[in-house]
């Protein structure tokens, strides 16, 4: 499907005229940064394979679902109130789960990004990042911004979304450090901002030079420390990535320029290498007559079955297996003496006695004990009532943690192991090498829809929930993305 060209009249409503005019630029130097700008500008919808289309539609559906249930959280309400009270009203773009609420495009991208990560329920890739939440809210906000006669098609939207995912994946692969569970920067706040900028630049049909500048501007707006993990501020990382990437693309569309070598390794000057000490970039080839192989083609996405840090899914599955064994003893016949968890060493997700739902979502101990007690971990596991149960607190007091040398802090190589010793000497063991939902063991379409129905149904009536499933399933066939946008509130 041919990309729609945006007319100067389109920009006169909201943007400076230069946002849509094709500016005359000299030929860029042969740099890594320019190769990325060229890719973003030149990639076409026909380069999306059936596998990439199907996988990215699953990501869109899941991201909308976790964003909708995320719109019920306290942190989302705080972010929305802040935007409504501190900024002038510009009612253009939709807000998840709020039928009568609209914000400016950048603020809608922000609050919807916050919603998506507010429960740590959004998708995860490898190397480690949460790709969809940084991109989809920005793409939807821009789509809302465009006038009725210039709305992108569903295929346009999917192309922009996949560009944003692809850029994130490529940047993460330039660093061995990025392959491991992060210690310094939260990855979505780094590569997510760049992905959002790339997606928005593609949807705005920016030229090669403008696309490069959008990435370079986004790099100056990127980065958040891991110290804010397990707090209410962590969802802001996704919200800011979505918002600031969108702003970077809009600024580039107006003609703002930045470094032409932000992605290159330049001796004595930190560009994107400031985020990763072992950064070694390479060129991104533009599509040719044979097309382009997206990273999503070769590696699927990880989808979470419950709202917690990805690492929790290994120990929860291992503990669930032990729960089944405990049931065989009969009611009242089991007394646990000791619980041993073997996990990778990662300080910010080793939390023996979490004090808040956000800490609980980042606690090997809490998720193990919840699964031992209930046989599963769910949305309800992180409510105040569930977190303060005496039997859960008693189990937490029995937990020990070990970090075997063969268990690296890497989502592609780690395992979770739980060992329970009973009074009387019986020892029960559970181990998980690849949980259900991991990119090596992806959720079936039926499981993904079940998750979506459960999440979206908290906010939307059943007919809209089912309507969204149908719309996303046929997204590449839509001539006008308003069909999707109208279903989100």
Describe this structure in words.
- 45% of the residues lie in helices and 7% in strands.
- Residues 1-27 have low confidence and may be disordered.
- The longest helix has 21 residues, at 50-70.
- Helix 4 packs antiparallel against helix 5, helix 8 packs antiparallel against helix 9 and helix 14 crosses helix 16 (390-396).
- The chain contains 19 helices and six strands.
- It is α+β, with helices and mostly antiparallel strands.
- It starts with 7 loop residues before the first helix and ends with a helix.
- Strands 4-3-5-6 form a four-stranded mixed beta sheet.
- It folds into two domains: 32-305 and 472-486, 2-methylcitrate dehydratase PrpD, CATH 1.10.4100.10; 310-432, 60s Ribosomal Protein L30, Chain: A, CATH 3.30.1330.120.
- Residues 38-272 form the MmgE/PrpD N-terminal domain.
- Belongs to the PrpD family.
- Residues 306-476 form the MmgE/PrpD C-terminal domain.
């Amino acid at each position: 499907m041919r990309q729609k060209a945006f007319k100067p009249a389109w920009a006169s409503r909201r943007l400076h005229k230069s946002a849509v005019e094709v500016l005359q630029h000299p030929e860029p130097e042969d740099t890594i940064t320019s190769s990325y700008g060229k890719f973003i500008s030149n990639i076409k919808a026909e380069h999306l394979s059936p596998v990439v289309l199907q996988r990215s539609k699953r990501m869109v559906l899941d991201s909308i679902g976790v964003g909708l249930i995320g719109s019920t959280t306290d942190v989302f309400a705080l972010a929305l109130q802040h935007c409504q009270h501190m900024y002038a009203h510009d009612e253009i773009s939709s807000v998840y789960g709020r039928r009568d609420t609209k914000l400016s495009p950048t603020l809608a991208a922000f609050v919807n990004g916050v919603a998506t990560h507010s429960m740590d329920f959004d998708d995860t890739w490898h190397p480690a990042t949460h790709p969809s939440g940084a991109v989809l809210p920005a793409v939807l906000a821009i789509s809302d911004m465009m006038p009725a006669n210039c709305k992108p098609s569903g295929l346009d939207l999917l192309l922009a979304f996949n560009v944003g995912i692809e850029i994130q994946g490529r940047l993460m692969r330039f660093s061995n450090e990025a392959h491991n569970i992060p210690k310094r920067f939260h990855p979505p706040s780094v590569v997510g901002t760049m992905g959002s900028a790339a997606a928005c630049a593609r949807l705005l049909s920016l030229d090669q030079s403008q696309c490069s500048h959008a990435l370079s501007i986004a790099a100056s707006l990127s980065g958040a420390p891991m110290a804010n993990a397990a707090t209410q501020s962590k969802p802001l990382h996704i919200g800011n990535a979505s918002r600031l990437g969108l702003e970077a693309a809009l600024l580039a569309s107006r003609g703002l320029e930045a470094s032409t070598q932000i992605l290159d390794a330049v001796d004595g000057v930190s560009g994107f290498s400031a985020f990763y000490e072992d950064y070694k970039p390479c060129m991104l080839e533009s599509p040719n007559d044979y097309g382009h192989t997206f990273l999503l083609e070769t590696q699927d996405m990880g989808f979470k079955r419950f709202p917690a840090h990805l690492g929790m899914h290994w120990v929860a599955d291992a503990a669930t297996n032990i729960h089944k064994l405990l049931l065989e003893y009969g009611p009242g016949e089991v007394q646990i003496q000791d619980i041993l968890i073997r996990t990778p060493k990662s300080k910010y997700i080793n939390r023996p006695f979490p004090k808040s739902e956000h800490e609980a979502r980042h606690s090997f101990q809490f998720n193990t004990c919840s699964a031992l007690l209930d046989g599963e971990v769910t949305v309800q596991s992180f409510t105040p009532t569930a977190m303060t149960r005496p039997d859960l607190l008693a189990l937490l007091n029995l937990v020990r943690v070990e970090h075997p040398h063969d268990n690296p802090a890497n989502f592609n190589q780690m395992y979770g192991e739980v060992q329970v010793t009973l009074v009387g000497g019986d020892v029960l063991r559970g181990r998980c090498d690849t949980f259900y939902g991991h990119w090596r063991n992806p959720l079936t379409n039926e499981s993904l829809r079940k998750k979506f129905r459960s999440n979206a149904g908290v906010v939307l009536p059943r007919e809209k929930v089912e309507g969204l499933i149908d719309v996303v399933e046929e997204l590449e066939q839509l001539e006008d993305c308003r069909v999707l946008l109208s279903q989100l509130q």
